Amino acid sequence: MKDLKTVYLTHGPEFSLPKPEPCVMAMGFFDGVHVAHQQVILEAKNIARKRKIKLAVMTFFPHPREVLNLGKEKMNYLTPLEVKLDRFSKLGVDIVYVIKFDLVFAELSPKEFIDTYVTGLGVKHAVAGFDFTYGQKGKGTMKTMSTDGEGKFLVTVISKLDYKGQKISSTFIRNLLSHGEVNEIASYLGDYYETRGKVVSHYHSRIGKRFYIDVAVHPYYTLPANGIYEVEMHSEGHVYHGSALVYSNKIKLSFDGTIKNQTYETVKLKWIRSLDIERVQLQQI
């Protein structure tokens, strides 16, 4: 995994751009970095290799919807920014530009956005999904990007990617989570859905020889619907298979036997599938 250069940008009166670096840029919010997002980034990577220039990603934080609704609508994120950055690095990205999405930035016209954040950053080729928009009220689209760029860079549009007739999108994955259908997510995400959290407490049950862990999920993750799920817990190089009870945005993990190391503070969970409550109760008696 290569070293990733991360540049944080905030638009404002004293704003100044870093020195432009010739690059091919993949553009989008990329929440979850699902398979359609990966297609955008990998296409940009192929172009960058051919042109022998750097591969960059432009992303934003917080989510535009959260800002434009003035905080009235809670955004259910799939992945925190630091996890996205890790996934970008694994995909071979050289530079990530993280733009603070606020009301000042949202007022930029499409042309101002392109002049500042695309041409101004040395982009030679821009790659984005067919539904990417930019500039005030999203007036800029992939159909207008070449015109706004005045031919100073090339543009590649990635078409809609479907699986079983369903458009692969972060919104659809959030919908699967809200219905507890975690077993369906891997086909759209490219892997099992993953969350990370802080261990609040752990204890053994005197009945049934089971080990329990209470976990508080880290910010900027969305938990599946209340219910019981098969999970993998990853901690300090070990993988444990067990179940997770989700309730009131909390997690209670349950495992057979003993966990080898009980000094950990954080754990990573992979959500495999939902479980039938009655069957789980019978197995634990």
From TrEMBL:
Boundaries of every FAD synthetase domain copy: 19-171
EC number: 2.7.7.2
Any GO MF annotation of the entry: riboflavin kinase activity
Membership in a protein family: Belongs to the RibF family.
Pathway field: Cofactor biosynthesis; FAD biosynthesis; FAD from FMN: step 1/1
InterPro entries reported in the protein's UniProt record: FAD_synthase, Riboflavin_kinase, Rossmann-like_a/b/a_fold
Keyword flag Transferase: yes
One Pfam family named in its UniProt record: FAD_syn
Catalyzed reactions per annotation: FMN + ATP + H(+) = FAD + diphosphate
Keyword set, alphabetical order: ATP-binding, FAD, Flavoprotein, FMN, Nucleotide-binding, Nucleotidyltransferase, Transferase
Protein name as catalogued: FAD synthase
Organism: Niallia endozanthoxylica
GO biological process: FAD biosynthetic process; FMN biosynthetic process; riboflavin biosynthetic process
